[in-house]
Protein 1
Amino acid sequence: MNIRANSDKGRAFRWGGSGSGVMRLRGVDLSGADLREANLSGANLVDAILRNADLMGADLCGANLLAADLSDAILREANLSGADLSSANLSNAKMPKGWVFVDSDSD
């Protein structure tokens, strides 16, 4: 599997995996990346920086986004089923329709 992302800063990267196993993208800086409709299911994106990233229609099913920075990211139509968004920064993120945030620390 290959993922190609182009950021608004003109950078490009390619990640190629063996096609099996978990994508390990822990701590990667994908600020401004175009990840529309990318298959990131099950990916390890712990501490990843996805500020201003376009993830519209991306498959993030089961992805680990623990403490990821998704501020100002576009997540409309993204599949976030089973994704771990614990401690993620979702400030100003454009979320899928119907998403409601609940404070898990409240009584």
Protein 2
Amino acid sequence: MFITDTKRWGYTRKDGEVVFNWQLSALPPEIGEYVVVHELVHLVYMNHKRSFHSKMVSLIPDYKVKEKILHNFIAINPKFENEHLRDRNAE
């Protein structure tokens, strides 16, 4: 497992490595838990097919609600933000 800067809240690699954004701890606990569970389910189901969703429902019955709430938050990638500011200053 890795904690790093990424634009995503988390992702699971095909080799089974799970990566989380360090900003995950700033989310409401139940939303952060949703992200962690989502990625851990990918260790078994590396897609978003029916079996993945069935497992999510069995673990977090209202995961779709939490998924929608998560879309209200934006993970900030400091590397990206710095490049954006540098480009604006060059204008």
Protein 3
Amino acid sequence: MPSHSALRREIITKANKMANTKAISLKANPYLETGTQDVMICRKSRLFMVEVKTGEARTRKIQERRAVEWASAGAVCLVARSWQDVEAALLGPSTGFGGGI
């Protein structure tokens, strides 16, 4: 099983290789709200907010609240435990929540 940071890097690297796609890491910093998802991806005018989890890790309540805020603004929010989770969302007709948030 990859570490959290290794999975985050894999998601960003592979997403950025897709046409019409830009992905960035949202590492915690003083300007970022607590609970904001780990990765932001924009693909073909759709915004995806990805919470990266490995092993048995679960989302925290604050992460779930942030996902609701982003989804209400039109983002697709998902929990990813693999690149395949993200790829399915990016290639599918996703709207709203996905992957368990």
Protein 4
Amino acid sequence: MIRWLRKKKKKKDDEKKKFEYSNEVIGIILILASIIGIGAYGPAGNFIRAFAIFLVGNIYIFLLMSLLLLGGYLILKRKMPNFSSLRWIGFLYNSYFILSIITCKIYNIK
């Protein structure tokens, strides 16, 4: 009987709203870093290129191109790709296989 006399309490939005464009900003940063690294523009470009060479060796351009593609994906789709799906696992496995064959041919490894 008294229930209808009580005022309804309004819930406050105490939760902080997440920055809505975080994936786009990350995508733009990845694209800029990959372009600067591919072109080796200035000391920052030389550092990015040297770090990519440190990670993967002479095939560093594939790493920088994949960062460029990932940045474009983040901007267009506005979400991170699911790297644990079978499609991505197969793509990464095949890419690793192709790059290892290229590396063997470059260094004449049999």
